[in-house]
């Protein structure tokens, strides 16, 4: 079966050695019903020309891709889960299936699974994924991409014909296997496991691998500074991720150290939610009783996880340098948040450095005092004051006449509309934006569960595609 010439296998993770993974076999599912294939993502790795039958063979039965891993790899890692260290985790219902090069920029990308069967790290789990869980991951990744958050791509979802029992879903419920395309599955928890085992040679080996594959600009750095440079790059990437979460109104829900990878790309979505309004206490996970991963606490959670990473490479970096690198996290995330707001509002940077800080302050104060719709506010003022007429048509137009809007209006006036604001796009002729609140997710799932009606999902994906194109995050 010939593949596209853009397909470039790069099964590099196995070069780290058997101590980093376990070779496993996928589950033998009774059915394979293709529910979602991401053609845009497939095109980036030369797999868009597959027939549906070939697609199912690779991503439902997990026949090896040409010149790739002959067997899937369940990755080994530890992690802090809600601040409690757990040495008994790892890929318990997933595995690394293949690695490929991006056809455009050559980046190393992973195809990995969720719900593909039991592994040595499954503990008491069945290694499966509910169909609803797969649907939710599709919606999260598509929406985040449209909002400018670096995220894994939901590559494939195949319903597998089993009945699952879950405490947090009406059961029995339907099963599925998800494949995601992601820029690295090496987690902070991957390093934590090696530190737990006191394997300093393996930590140095993993740093070198990460530099070579994910930070090649550091390849020529002196060996004695490579780990410090690596830690600094990861810190900057994770800070950017946190800033983008906040600008998108997104709550991941489970920011454990095994859910943070070294490239700063968001992945592995469970109880996520988008905040309808600005509320720092808004939580996504029903089991997050203390609000540890609430919306407003996400930057702190990410900084805490980075400190755990710094501990693992401390012998290679040194205390003083580690503290200096971690000290940069807060300034970076503040600056990245300001830049993310410019992107979301479609504004050009102002000549005065204080203008971006004023924009952030004005926005948060306005949202906090008025409880205006989070996404509606960005939509109404895309392009700044050039969009007065659109804002005047908004369902919350009255809030823009209130005195609380004054500081934000002044901050918007200090910025010109960015050339890439794309205000002529049809998306901005609407009165309300595309959103992804929990009620909408449930409204999409209900007809699927009741009558196998996928039309609401199809319509939402079309809506998100229009949003993504309007915001310049990729072609629809």
Structural class: alpha+beta
How many individual domains?
3
Q: What kind of sheet is the major sheet?
A: 6 strands, antiparallel
Task: Give the averaged pLDDT, no decimals.
Answer: 97
Please mark out the parts with pLDDT under 50 across 5 or more consecutive residues, or reply none.
Answer: none
Give the strand content: 5-15%
User: Can you count the beta strands?
Assistant: 12
Terminal Cα span:
29 Å
Helix tally? 16
What order do the SSEs take from the amino end to the carboxyl end, as H and E? Answer: EEHHEEEEEEHEEHHHEEHHHHHHHHHH
Share of helix, binned:
25-40%
Instruction: Report the radius of gyration as a whole number of Å.
Output: 22 Å
Globally, the shape reads globular
Function: Nucleotidyltransferase involved in the post-translational modification of proteins. It can catalyze the addition of adenosine monophosphate (AMP) or uridine monophosphate (UMP) to a protein, resulting in modifications known as AMPylation and UMPylation.
Binding site for Mg(2+): 259, 268
EC number: 2.7.7.-, 2.7.7.108
Keywords: ATP-binding, Magnesium, Manganese, Metal-binding, Nucleotide-binding, Nucleotidyltransferase, Transferase
């Amino acid at each position: 079966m010939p593949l596209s010439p853009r397909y470039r296998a790069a099964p590099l993770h196995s070069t780290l050695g058997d101590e980093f993974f376990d070779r496993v076999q996928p589950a033998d599912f009774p059915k394979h019903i293709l529910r979602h294939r991401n053609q845009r993502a497939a095109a980036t790795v030369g797999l868009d020309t597959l027939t549906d039958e070939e697609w199912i063979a690779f991503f439902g039965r997990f026949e090896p891709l040409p010149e790739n891993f002959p067997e899937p790899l369940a990755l080994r890692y530890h992690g802090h889960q809600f601040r409690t260290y757990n040495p008994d985790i790892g890929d318990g219902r997933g595995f690394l299936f293949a690695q490929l090069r991006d056809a455009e920029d050559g980046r190393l990308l992973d195809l990995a699974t969720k719900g593909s069967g039991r592994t040595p790290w499954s503990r008491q789990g069945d290694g499966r994924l509910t169909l609803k869980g797969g649907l939710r991951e599709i919606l999260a990744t598509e929406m985040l991409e449209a909002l400018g958050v670096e995220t894994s791509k939901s590559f494939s979802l195949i319903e597998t014909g089993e009945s699952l029992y879950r405490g947090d879903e009406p059961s029995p419920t339907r099963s599925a296997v998800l494949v995601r395309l992601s820029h690295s599955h090496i987690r902070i928890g991957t390093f934590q496991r090696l530190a737990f085992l006191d394997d300093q040679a393996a930590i140095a080996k993993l740093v070198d691998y990460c530099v070579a594959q994910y930070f090649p600009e550091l390849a020529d750095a002196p060996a004695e500074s490579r780990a410090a440079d690596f830690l600094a790059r990861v810190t900057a990437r994770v800070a950017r991720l946190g800033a983008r979460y906040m600008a998108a109104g997104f709550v991941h829900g489970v920011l454990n150290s095994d859910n943070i990878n070294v490239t700063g790309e968001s992945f592995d979505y469970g109880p996520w939610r988008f905040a309808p309004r600005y509320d720092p206490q808004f939580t996504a996970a029903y089991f997050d009783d203390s609000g540890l991963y609430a919306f407003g606490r996400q930057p702190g959670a990410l900084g805490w996880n980075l400190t755990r990473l710094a501990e693992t490479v401390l012998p290679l970096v040194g205390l003083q340098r580690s503290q200096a690198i971690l000290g940069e996290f807060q300034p970076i995330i503040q600056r990245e948040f300001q830049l993310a707001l410019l992107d979301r509002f479609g504004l050009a940077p102002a000549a005065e450095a204080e203008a971006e800080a004023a924009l952030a302050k004005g926005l948060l104060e306005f949202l906090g005092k008025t409880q205006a719709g989070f996404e509606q506010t960005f939509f109404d003022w895309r392009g700044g004051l050039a969009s007065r007429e659109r804002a005047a048509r908004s369902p919350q137009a009255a809030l823009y006449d209130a005195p609380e809007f004054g500081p934000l209006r002044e901050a918007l006036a200090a910025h010109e509309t960015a050339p890439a604001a794309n205000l002529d796009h049809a998306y901005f002729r609407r009165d309300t934006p595309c959103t992804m609140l929990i009620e909408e997710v449930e409204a999409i799932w209900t007809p699927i569960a009741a009558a196998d009606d996928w039309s609401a999902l199809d319509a939402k994906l079309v809506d998100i595609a229009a949003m993504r194109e309007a915001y310049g995050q990729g072609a629809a």
